[in-house]
Amino acid sequence: MREVVIVEGVRTPVGKRKGLLSNVRPDDLAAKVLRELVNRAGISPGIVQDVIMGCVSQVEEQGLNIARNAVLMADFPIQVPATTIDRQCGSGQQAIHFAAQAILSGDMDVVIAGGVESMTRVPLGSTRQNSTSSEELTSRYEIIHQGLSAERIADKWGFTRTQLDEFSVESHNRALKAIEEGRFDREIMPLEVTLEDGSTVALRQDEGPRKGSTVEKLSTLKTVFKEDGKIHAGNASQMSDGAAAVLLMSREKAEELGLKPRFRIVARSVVGSDPTLMLTGPIEATRQVLAKAGLTIEDMDTYEVNEAFAPVPMCWLEEIKADPKKLNPNGGAIALGHPLGATGAKLMISMMHELERTGSRYGLQAICEGGGMANGTIIERISE
Predict the structure, then answer these.
(1) 315 is catalytic
(2) Residue from 89, 97, 232, 353 carrying the catalytic annotation
(3) Nearest to 171 by CA among 307, 294, 283
(4) Catalytic-labelled residue, pool 55, 172, 232, 368
(5) Is 97 a catalytic residue?
C-alpha cells in the first residue's frame, strides 16, 4: 500500500494586518515559500507534479489562480501546474489532503501543498462585495456572521468572558515563550521587507504576540458582535498576512531521491457541520480522523486546533476530553495570527517542528471553516 510522507515544510513569518508585510504582494509571498521549499529539500522544481494552494479571497492580487502565478514567479518550469482552492479557513489543510490523495491514488509522486493570504492587501469579504446570500439558502438555514456563531458557542457551552480571556492570555504567553526559546526559527524563512521610505528591514518573527496581555486589559475591550456579548478583538484570531508550503511525496519516491521522510500522513477527515453554529466542526472531524486511524486522543502527543475564536478550541477540549497542555502548545491564532488560506499549512509545519523538538510521535490538527465544515489530520513522526 502506498504511503504519503512529508519531506519538508517552510513558512513566512506571519505579519499583522497593516504590519511589516503590508507592502509585499501575496503572490510574491507564495512564490518565496515555493522557492525556499525546494531549496531546503534539495530537489529540482521540475519533478513537482502539481502545486495546490489555499486562498480564501481570490480577487485582485490573489485572483486568476494565485498558485499558478506563484509557480511561474518562483522560476519553476512551465510544465509544473498549480491550482488554488477555497475551503475557507481550512484551505491550506485541505490542500495537504488533496495532495495526499493524489499521491495515494498513484496519479502523482511529488506534490506541493500550501496556502497564502494577505488580509491587508485583499481584505476579508472582498469576494462578496455588496452581494447577499440567496433566499434559497437563507430560507433553509439561519446564516449569521462567524462572530455571532462564536457568541452562541460560548453561551451553549457556558463559557464566561473571563474564561475566554484567560484562554487568550495563555495563547499569547505560550507564543511569546516559543519565540523567546527559538522554537519557530527552523520553520520560518526570514524576509527582507522594503518600507514606505525605501529602507529595508528583516522580518524573522511573527508579529502578532503581545507582551503584557492580561485578563484585566482584555476586560476593557468592547465586544464586536453583540453589545452584551463576550467576543472581542482580544479573544478572536488576528487578521494576518503570510504564506506556507509543504512538500509531500510517496515514500518510494522520497527514498529513490535519497530524501529522508520526516512524517507520514496517517489519516484525514473532512466533515460538514451546523452552518449556523458553524465553528463546531473540529469536534466531529477529530472523532472521525481518530476512528480512521484506529487511535485515541490519548495517543496524540500534541494537537493544533485553530483559534478562530477562543470558544472554538475550548468547546473542542470539553467534548473530546483532551489534555489542555497538549493543545496549541506554542500559542495559536489569537496570538500568532490567522492568514486564512495559509493557516492550514502553517499549523501543520508548526506541529511537525513541535513533534521533532519533543521527540514525540503523533500530532492531530483540526480547523473550523466558514459555512460549517472542518478538516482533521493525523501525522506520525518517522524516527528511523
Answers:
(1) no
(2) 89
(3) 307
(4) 368
(5) no
Q: Compute the distance between CA of residue 94 and CA of residue 366 in angstroms, rounded to an integer.
A: 11
**Cβ proximity of 309 and 279 under 8 Å:** yes
Query: How far apart are alpha carbons 311 and 240 in whole angstroms?
Result: 20
pLDDT at 384 over 90: no
Q: What is the pLDDT of residue 40?
A: 98
pLDDT tens across 300-356, in order? Answer: 999 999 999 999 999 999 999 999 999 999 999 999 999 999 999 999 999 999 999
The answer for residues whose C-beta is within 8 angstroms of residue 134's C-beta and 6 or more apart is none
Where is 324: in which H helix or E strand?
none
Strands (E), 195-239: 200-203
Q: How far apart are CA 153 and CA 26, in angstroms?
A: 33
Contact in structure between 316 and 305 (CB atoms under 8 Å): yes
**Is residue 368 flagged as an active site residue?**
yes
Residue matched to cell numbers 473532512 = 270
CA distance 50 to 94: 14
The three three-digit cell numbers of residue 304, written as one number: 493544533
Q: Are 375 and 97 in contact (CB under 8 A)?
A: yes
> What three-state secondary structure class fits 93?
helix
Q: What is the pTM of this model?
A: 0.98
- From the candidates 97, 172, 232, 338, which is the catalytic residue? 338
- How far apart, in Å, are the Cα atoms of 339 and each of 118, 160, 182? 7, 27, 21
Query: Could you tell me if 265 and 379 are in contact, meaning their C-beta atoms sit under 8 angstroms apart?
Result: yes
Could you read off the pLDDT of 232-242 as tens digits, one per residue? 999 999 999 99
